[in-house]
Write a structure and sequence with these properties.
This protein has 211 residues and is an alpha+beta fold. The protein has helices at 21-35, 53-69, 117-126, 140-150, 152-163, 170-178, 186-191; strands at 40-43, 49-50, 74-79, 90-100, 103-112, 129-139, 197-201, 206-207. Helix 4 crosses helix 5 (152-163). The two termini are 24 Å apart.
């Protein structure tokens, strides 16, 4: 609230218990979908360093354009790896998918969450892999369809919470349902499983300062 005071207070959702990025992002997607059935969502981290802000903004707009035209895909921002880091997920690019606002978007062959050192060295040497920045762009309805397919219990829970968002007992329903969710990253919950994953490589001066 201190750094982005223009965001309405009602738009802040406080997790009652830590359950990783999967349930958190799924819940926000369900809540936004209640308000806008055609919403395109950009999921981005607040604790990363992005030096090239203008490049980041242009890249995100190119990603949004891609999903507007291809709503049955999820797009991930990829970062060119500089070392065989074992703390990041890796995305293997496949053939070119389309050019969006002068940025090349690729189909993906696979998404690998935090490989061991030998695998990370192999990925780096191949030149076909990008680090997963954790920044994703999707159409809300498509994400919820994928959630229903790959994590039906979380889907039922977030939809139940979202449907109560305008009711007085929203907080109690949020508390009661959220604690039931598994502690799982969105990467494991959806990204490793979805069949239509795109990658948009960006040079944004990126660092996951948390690690």
């Amino acid at each position: 609230k201190k750094f982005v005071p223009d965001i309405p207070k009602k738009n802040y959702i406080t997790e009652p218990i830590k359950r990783n990025t999967g349930p958190a992002i799924a819940l926000v997607t369900a809540l936004i979908y209640q308000k806008d059935k055609d919403a395109i969502i950009v999921a981005t981290h607040s604790d990363h360093l992005v030096v090239k802000k203008e490049e980041y903004q242009k890249g995100v707009l190119a990603g949004i354009s891609t999903i507007k035209n291809h709503p049955n895909y999820i797009l991930c921002v990829g970062i060119q790896p500089t070392s065989p880091h074992t703390g990041y997920g890796y995305i293997e690019k496949r053939e070119e998918f389309r050019v969006s606002q002068n940025y090349m978007v690729y189909n993906t062959a696979r998404f690998v969450e935090k490989p061991n050192l030998d695998k990370a060295k192999e990925y780096l040497a191949s030149g076909n892999f990008f680090w997963n920045s954790g920044y994703f762009i999707w159409q809300a309805e498509h994400f919820l369809e994928e959630l229903k397919k790959y994590s039906p219990d979380v889907y039922k829970g977030v939809m139940k919470i979202a449907k109560s968002s305008s009711e007085k007992d929203f907080k109690s329903i949020l508390d009661r349902e959220f604690i039931k969710f598994p502690d799982v990253a969105v990467d494991n919950m959806i990204m490793e499983k979805t069949e239509n994953l795109l990658v948009l490589p960006l040079d944004i001066g990126w660092s996951d300062v948390g690690s």
